[in-house]
């Protein structure tokens, strides 16, 4: 059973706080074109630190 | 590791993994990137086997992103949780016997000054609390007494994490841990105060709950160590596995510590202050 963070794109404002709180490198990337973040679900360990810091509740951890 | 050294020849490039090509094309080498740019470049820390929600790996990742010149940096480590991530950085890395890190770093710094007299090479010691406060305390203090121009960074998780949770000198007094069932019976070793009185010209105490400030102090510490003398940064990196809290609470625990024992503190000598003010103007 694997868990990973998922993004609700409409709520994301691209503040990048989640990127600076993720312990794993290059899991959350910033997409310049859309000014939003993108999550590599295959490499996410599902700890939920990004969820705990997101000011807009745009992230949640759920089963893959 | 200069970019020239890691750039492959066109014939070899097609056989290399995508991760490596990304590092050459979109890595931080020679671009002056910092913590605020995370997410838009290929980081120098690779995939690592740390637990989910690990504070140490977050600390290591932020320090690696904050290096002012990753291509001219040599990181020195010692066994412990910190070295799992460090052994997979794309900067020069040297592992040492447990506790020897500051002695080895002193030698490497002197050797690099002779080999590259006109190019500053940063030697950064990035180790856990066991390496600095327990086994390596004598070597660490003596490198500060000798005014070696190295940066010492402690990722303090207040426990021996990878061996099952023994108490370390940096564990809080009374803390009950998996391998310390009766609780620790003496207070935290005041390494930060020791740094102040042992000759460090710049020191800062931060937590992973404030990544931008962490990046700023690491950058300042490395710039000051190039010119003036030894510097010290102590980062609080809570351990969810051994402290028995949910991995999603690491930042909250660090934030709570900022209000108590781990309040932000910074000290610098006059010379270091002048240097920081000068680098800001530039």
Key traits:
heterodimer, A: 64 residues, alpha+beta, Alpha-Beta Plaits, two-stranded antiparallel sheet, B: alpha/beta, 7 strands, globular
Global structural class of chain A: alpha+beta
| Major sheet: arrangement of strands of chain B | 2-1-3-4-6-5-7
CATH level-4 homologous superfamily of chain B: Thiamin diphosphate (ThDP)-binding fold, Pyr/PP domains
Number of domain units of chain A: 1
**SS-derived structural category of chain B:** alpha/beta
Termini separation of chain A: 8 Å
Q: Low-confidence runs of chain A (pLDDT<50, min 5 residues)?
A: none
Mind telling me the CATH class of chain A? Alpha Beta
Order of helices and strands of chain A: EHEEHE
From the structure provided, what is the oligomeric state, counting identical versus distinct chains?
A: heterodimer
Number of helices of chain A: 2
Could you report the average pLDDT of chain A, rounded to the nearest whole number? 93
Number of helices of chain B: 13
Q: Would you tell me which CATH topology of chain B applies?
A: Rossmann fold
What is the third-level CATH name, the topology of chain A? Alpha-Beta Plaits
Set out the fold topology.
The complex is a heterodimer of chains A (64) and B (282).
Chain A: E1 3-7, H1 17-21, E2 28-31, E3 36-39, H2 49-53, E4 59-63
Antiparallel strand pairs in A: 1-4, 2-3
Chain B: H1 3-6, H2 10-13, H3 18-26, H4 55-66, E1 73-77, H5 82-86, E2 92-95, H6 101-115, E3 122-128, H7 129-135, H8 137-145, E4 151-156, H9 191-198, E5 202-207, H10 211-227, E6 231-236, H11 240-243, H12 250-258, E7 265-268, H13 270-281
Parallel strand pairs in B: 1-2, 1-3, 3-4, 4-6, 5-6
Antiparallel strand pairs in B: 5-7
Provide a descriptive summary of the structure in words.
- The complex is a heterodimer of chains A (64) and B (282).
- With 64 residues, chain A is an alpha+beta fold.
- Chain A is globular, with a radius of gyration of 11 Å.
- Chain A has two helices and four strands; from the N terminus they run βαββαβ.
- Chain A has a single domain (3-63), classed as Alpha-Beta Plaits (2-Layer Sandwich), CATH 3.30.70.
- Chain A has helices at 17-21, 49-53, and strands at 3-7, 28-31, 36-39, 59-63.
- In chain A, the strands form two sheets. Chain A has a two-stranded antiparallel sheet. In chain A, strands 2-3 form a two-stranded antiparallel sheet.
- Chain B is an alpha/beta fold.
- Chain B has a single domain, classed as 3-Layer(aba) Sandwich (Rossmann fold), CATH 3.40.50.970.
- The mean pLDDT of chain B is 92.
- The longest helix of chain B has 17 residues, at 211-227.
- In chain B, strands 2-1-3-4-6-5-7 form a seven-stranded mixed sheet, with helices on both faces.
- Chain B has 13 helices and seven strands.
- In chain B, 41% of the residues lie in helices and 13% in strands.
- Chain A binds chain B through residues 16, 19-26, 28-30, 32, 37, 43, 45-49, 51-53, 61, and chain B through 35-36, 38-40, 42-43, 45-48, 50, 52-55, 57-58, 61-62, 208, 211-212, 240, 246-252.
């Amino acid at each position: 059973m694997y868990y990973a963070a998922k993004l609700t794109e409409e709520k994301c404002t691209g503040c990048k706080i989640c990127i600076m709180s993720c312990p794993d490198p290059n899991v959350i990337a910033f997409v310049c074109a859309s000014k939003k973040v993108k999550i590599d679900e295959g490499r996410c360990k599902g700890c939920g630190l990004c969820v705990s810091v997101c000011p807009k509740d745009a992230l949640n951890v759920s089963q893959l | 590791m200069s970019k020239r050294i890691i750039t492959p020849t066109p014939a070899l490039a097609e056989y290399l993994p995508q991760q490596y090509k990304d590092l050459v094309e979109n890595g931080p080498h020679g671009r002056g990137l910092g913590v605020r740019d995370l997410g838009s470049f290929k980081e120098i820390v690779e995939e690592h086997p740390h637990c989910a929600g690990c504070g140490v790996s977050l600390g290591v990742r932020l320090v690696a992103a904050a290096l002012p010149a990753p291509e001219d940096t040599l990181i020195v480590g010692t066994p412990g949780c910190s070295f799992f991530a460090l052994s997979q950085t794309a900067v020069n890395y040297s592992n040492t016997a447990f506790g020897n890190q500051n002695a080895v770093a002193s030698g490497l710094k002197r050797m690099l000054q002779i080999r590259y007299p006109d190019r500053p090479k940063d030697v950064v010691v990035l180790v856990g609390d066991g390496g600095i406060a327990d086994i390596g305390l004598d070597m660490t203090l003596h490198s500060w007494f000798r005014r070696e121009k190295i940066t010492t960074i402690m990722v303090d998780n207040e426990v021996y994490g990878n061996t099952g949770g023994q108490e370390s000198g940096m564990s809080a007094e009374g803390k009950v841990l998996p391998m310390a069932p009766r609780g620790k019976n003496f207070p935290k070793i005041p390494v930060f105060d020791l740094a102040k009185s042992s000759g460090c010209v710049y020191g800062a105490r931060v937590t992973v709950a404030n990544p931008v400030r962490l990046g700023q102090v690491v950058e300042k510490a490395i710039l000051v160590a190039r010119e003036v003398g030894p510097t010290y940064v102590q980062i609080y990196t809570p351990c969810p596995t051994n402290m028995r809290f949910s991995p999603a609470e690491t930042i909250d625990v660090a934030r709570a510590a900022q209000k108590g024992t781990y309040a932000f503190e910074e000290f610098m000598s006059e010379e270091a202050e002048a240097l920081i003010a000068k680098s800001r103007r530039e």
